[in-house]
Amino acid sequence: METINFKIISSNSKIDWTGRKVTGSHNGTIGIEEGHFILIDGKIKGGNIVINTASIQILDVTDSATNAQFAGHLASDDFFATEKFPFANFDIIDAKEQSDNSYFLEGNLTIKGITHLVGFNVIIENNRNTISLNGKLVIDRTKYNIKFRSGNFFVDLGDTLIYNDFDLDFNITAEASFSSESKN
Questions:
Q1: Minimal CA–CA distance to 24: which of 49, 61, 56, 53?
Q2: R_g of the chain, CA atoms, integer Å
Q3: pTM (2 decimals)?
Q4: Are 51 and 18 in contact (CB under 8 A)?
Q5: Do 169 and 19 form a contact (C-beta atoms < 8 A)?
Q6: pLDDT tens column, 133-161
Q7: d(CA 179, CA 162)
Q8: Which CATH number do you get for residue 151?
């Protein structure tokens, strides 16, 4: 068996986020601090992704003052509490191969110190020394104590309601950092 650890290249990886509300949506990016994937005989078997919550950027708000105010609100306790919780983590606990390069990843997602089991489909391209992983994870923010303007917790929000689900679109590149072979 050949085991290869692929280290995420943060500068070549990103997460696009989309949040929706009654009157539209907002989108942006969030950075990956670090992480890795473990492949055994070319098949993904584990790994983790560390997300830097303080790196959240809003792309659709072009007025700099409004953008800064919005970014500050996302960093506050109403949303990600980035001062207390500067990182979110996704730890892969199972990878079910669906085809040669398609997997269903299950793992523990921790946001604001709260952990839940989540799963999502990914496509992995393996070029021996480099892999790329692409997939979309849909998250119910209320499970992580992000309740601001949620219809589950507040009434009469009208057009200020923010939907509970938000999307994280992963586009990750990782390089082989070491390999080992065992004869079993």
A1: 61
A2: 18
A3: 0.88
A4: no
A5: no
A6: 999 999 998 888 877 554 555 556 556 55
A7: 46
A8: 2.40.128.110
Alpha helices in the chain (DSSP H): 64-75
- DSSP, collapsed to helix, strand or coil, labels residue 66 as helix
Q: Which domain holds residue 32?
A: 2-181
17: nearest Cα among 168, 177, 178: 168
In the structure encoding, which two tokens stand for residue 57, read together?
């950027």
Number of structural domains (the chain) is 1
* Length of the chain counted residue by residue: 184
Q: One-letter amino acid identity for 177?
A: S
* pLDDT attached to residue 155: 55
Whole-angstrom CA distances from 109 to 10, 42, 55, 93, 144 are 19, 25, 18, 11, 10
How would DSSP label each residue in 63-101?
Answer: SHHHHHHHHHHHHSTTTT-TTT--EEEEEEEEEEE-SSS
Q: Compute the distance between CA of residue 8 and CA of residue 12 in angstroms, rounded to an integer.
A: 8
Q: How far apart are CA 93 and CA 143, in angstroms?
A: 20
Check: CB of residue 108 under 8 Å from CB of residue 117: yes
How does the average pLDDT of the chain come out, rounded? 87
Over the stretch 6-38, which tens digit does the pLDDT of each residue have? Answer: 999 999 999 999 987 778 888 999 999 999 999
Residues 6+ apart with CB under 8 A from 64: none
